[in-house]
Amino acid sequence: MQLYYHPFSSYSQKALIAFDEYAIDFDPRSLDGPDNPAMRELAALWPMKRFPVLVDGARTVLEASCIIEYIGLRVPAAERLIPEDPVLALEVRMLDRVFDNYVSTPQQKVVFDALRPQHQRDAHGVNEARRTLETAYAWLDARMAMHTWAVGERFTLADCAAAPFLFYAHWTHPIAPEHTHLLAYRQRLLQRSSFARAVDAARPYRSYFPLGAPAED
Ligand SMILES: N[C@@H](CCC(=O)N[C@@H](CS)C(=O)NCC(=O)O)C(=O)O
């Protein structure tokens, strides 16, 4: 299997965590560097040019959540990052959507805006995105008061999403100190070896982060 990804990209890290959790190997097609042939291949595979993208023989799998579900088919059902129990599986997919839509999307909005020239910036959209993050943080903090991982006691697909998204979201719009449960969860995620390895592999790229990367992570 070939994985098109960039080590600093949050959605790539989401998939990388799952490969690591499953101890599944892949042929890396890193998108790092200008005029990268992998970037031209990506554009041919997926005109949106979003990554990660997985290629397995004749099959192309788009979207980090679907890549995680796809590679999970290679391991016994009981070990998958989406539980066998259909109701729990639904809750995992629901939390995965929450992290994509209400943490990652507003976080990316703020970061992409910061990369634009001043006169093309969207102050209203950025304020809305910051408010969405605040609402998500408060909701997640209350939830994490009762959970070790996003859904119950097992590390799942939802945690693969939470790890990079909360990591970068806290850089972008700090989680308030009173959200102790959410901050503790973010620390638990940082200590998970699959995510710790992804964070370490991405360290050389921190200068790409337009809002300034804090030293403490
Ligand atoms: N919905 C996609 C989102 C992927 C995504 O937005 N990836 C970012 C990198 S973190 C990207 O491709 N950015 C390049 C671009 O926007 O052109 C998924 O779940 O995989």
UniProtKB/TrEMBL annotation:
The keyword Cell membrane does not apply. It comes from the Bacteria. GO terms for molecular function: transferase activity. Residues 85-208 form the GST C-terminal domain. Keywords: Transferase. SUPFAM superfamilies: GST C-terminal domain-like, Thioredoxin-like. Residues 1-79 form the GST N-terminal domain. This is Glutathione S-transferase.
